[in-house]
Amino acid sequence: MKEWEAVIGLEIHVELATASKLFCGCSTAFGAEANTQVCPVCLGLPGHRPILNRGAIEYAIKASLALNCDITPQTTFDRKNYFYADLPKGFQISQFFYPTGTNGYIDVEVGDRVRRIGIRQIHVEEDTGKLVHLGDIASSPYSLVDFNRAGVPLIEIVTQPDIRTAGEARLFLQKLRSIIEYTGVSDCKMEEGSMRCDANISVRPPGSATFGTKTELKNMNSFRAVQRATEYEIERQIDVLSHGEAVIPQTRHWDEAKGITVAMRAKYLATDYRCFPDPNIIPMDNDPGWVESIRQSLPELPDARIRRMVEEHGLPGYDAETITSSRDLADFYEATVNLYNEPKVVSNWIMGEVSRCLNAAGKKLAETPLTPRRLAGLLQLIAKGTISGKIAKGVFEDMFASGQDPEAIVQEKGLVQIADTGELGSLVTNVLAANPKSVADFKAGKEKALGFLVGQIMKETRGKANPQLVNQLIRERIEGM
Amino acid sequence: MSLLQDLRATSLLKLLKAREITAEEITAAVLGKISEVDKQINAYITVTGEQALAQARQADRALARGGDIPPLAGVPMGIKDNICTAGVKTTCGSLMLAGYTPHYSATAVERLGQAGAVMAGKTNLDEFGLGNTNKTSYFGATRNPLDPARMPGGSSGGSAAAVAAGEASFALGTDAGGSIRQPASYCGVVGLKPTFGLVSGYGVIDFAPSLDTVGPLTLDVQDCALVLQAMAGRDPLHPMTEGAVAPDYSSFLGRDIRGLKIGLVREYFGPEIAPGVKSRVLAAAEKLDQLGTIVEETSLPHAAYAAAAYLVISTAEAFSNLSNFDGVRFGHRTGGQDLHNMYRRTRFEAFGPDLRQKLIFGALVLGAGHYEEYFVQAQKIRTLIKRELKESLRRYDLLLTPATPDPAPALANDDSLAMRNQDMCLLPANLAGLPAITLPCGSLDNLPVGLQFMAAPYAEGLLLQVACALEQQLARPWA
Fold it and tell me: ipTM of the assembly?
């Protein structure tokens, strides 16, 4: 049985979160009615002139810096010429000759090793329109085109062929998304298409200096899909080669439902895009001072943040990584810790209740009434003994749903913990009288029986009794019998 | 109305201000002239008579109210039909856009409208502006009003013919490789190609954005200053105008030209230039000398390569720039079995053979394996020519050349190589983005002969100043 090594390179398109398009003032907002965010420029009407959106270049430089790239001294644009129904001008304005960023990398933790995945280049280009079909493309009697997306700024991130497994591809993508999300230049939503990934895959005998014949995978709409599709394609190629056949260079489509890749079109004739500098766009100097100010504006990136959380907050590495994987969550964590300085407690709550409720509701933090002040308030109520940890979970759910302050919920629902020895004392008397067997068991040394008796009190008080206090009262009472 | 012999804007404005004529009368006269001669000349693709009369009446009301009179109030103009006009067909002389009506106007048109000018119609041109004969228009060739057996030149041939025939007071053209200046010269009118970036190109259906500019064709230099003034200056819709500087051009007219240095470009007085043309341009140089300028011979050694560089760059840009004409969203469409078949059929049917040949050439020079060999080389030549002209214009205030090697050729002339030569003196200004003006300087066999001045970027004032001084020394048909 021959061994094989896979060689994977990724091409990731990320939509930049600018308010307007790359070469006109049209809105980039997602989800508008078809062809309502268009103008002569992005429709390619005769006589149009592109006007470069400097903000998009700033975003591209920001992303490039975050991915450790060198920045080209001048922003230039070129035309990539081809005909397609979603391409209004008959050419796409892109950076063919001088990409904004080159020669970058991301460090990805794979198991206990760190793999450095090279980034060949990051270039800016305009998105195309979107084709809409009745049913699927093959059987639809027509194609409709929505040009709302045409002209939306994208960056295309091209990696070196440094990735070796499907798992690495997924980890790389997750890390990439996290970094881009931190920079704020994109929301990186794969499901809305603001982040799209294609993979170039080939296999070769391990240690071989040359590459095998590659195929290009498209239509992977989630991290999981990238991993599954890549896995499948590697296996498929190994299978083909093991049977003495040759891999055909082609573009293949990932069929999510069937879990297979399907040939779309042959690649043997390389398309000639006849790229040349766009005569309508004046080259713009990327002034070193400007680039430096963009570098200064970069937020702390995930790696540095994880290090700080571990070193300064004393969080376990796992906690730090989980929390930093989303900037929202990490920002929320830090703001909460600023108000309630118990990092591990806050981390437990964020990885526990907060994440659980967010997942269940399918929402982002910003879409909920949850605030660091409210969470910190809740944790302080526990610390002061006003409510128990168990009651707190219920309060949290209320808070999550209604947006009320935890103090108000506790007051309103009468959830203040009963820590009055007099009140609890009479409850203890009743419970002990009603459960003579448990009392006897405890006396006989069965510690478990104590748990049962405490539980009875908690039940009576609907969880409001201070459990430590109840525990102590029962012990004293039985020992005094 | 035939009393209206002098259609110069300055003359018309005098009559209007003196209440000796109304804008409506002027427009009616011009429309009358169009219906009288345009069947033969074919200067216009679309005549906007009703709209023009309405605009003229509006101008009359403004004049009656008094106060500030807009600088071109009631002056009738023709607009080259590759310049967008809201609500008026803009065909580019092509079947591709034969039915196309844009919903917005080019900035240049907007500004002329604000200056009070009245649009008489849209003028004929070589298909999409690629040509210098006006014979490649889908709407038929334009004839030279001075001799209908001759061509008016192109691609702004309709604009030049309209002005020369009295079918407009002035017209707008576009010039990517002599397309204003060559027909102006053939038709005996003044043509100005402004500095690249002085006049907004927003709304101009150009084929070579790095070369193309909008400019006026007028009856004299004073009108040229007036029309340029109305259009020039920054336009947020066209970033190329970011550095535009537009001084008061009229203030340059009549200024002393003594002591200005004028370089006579040796390379443009060679065997390609008809002896009769040469002698008339040299006679004009003699007049300039008498007027106190210092005229010296100078050289532009790389000028000889301008035509080759222009051919490569202009067709490459055209190949790409005309790719939006795919039959999908506007313009002509020929159905096909599938998308790519539809593209092929649409573009084959709706583009004329001459244009198709140029687009194919452009695709070729950008193709894999040819890009370095042709396109990159052409850009290098362009850089050399730019540098050479810059250097030369440090030593001279203006450069002087003939406008064209010959007067207007016969309409039947099909020698395409000889025709290409007709732009030889004009191309360097496009490659270098410099302003250049042509004006008539005599006649040969009853056909006008033109000369050209080039100047440094944004030195239109100087160009107009010298052109005006020279013009006053030359015979003027309306004097």
Answer: 0.95
